[in-house]
Amino acid sequence: MVNRGANSAAMDTDDGLTTSDLLASLTFGSNAVFKSSNDLPTDSDISQVTDRTRSEEASDGLLQGGAAKTAIDFDKDKELTDTRNFCGVDFRKLREEKDKKFSGKGKNKMLDNLKSEWMQAQTGETEEEMGKGKRNRKSRLLQVASNGSGWGQSHVPVLAMNDYDLQSGEPSVWRETKKSTFVPKKKKVNDFINQDFCQACGDGGELIMCPRCPVSIHAHCCGLHPDDFQCCNHHHCVPCGKNAVGAGGLLYRCQSCPSAYCPDCLPSGKVVRFLGTNVPRFEKLGFDGNALYQYIHCSKQCEEVAKAEFGFKVDAAKPKLPPKLDVSYSFGANAMDVKDMAKMYREKALGIWQKRPSPSKGSRFSPRKKSSSTPKKMSPKNVVDLTRT
Question: CB of 301 within 8 A of CB of 255?
Answer without folding.
Answer: no
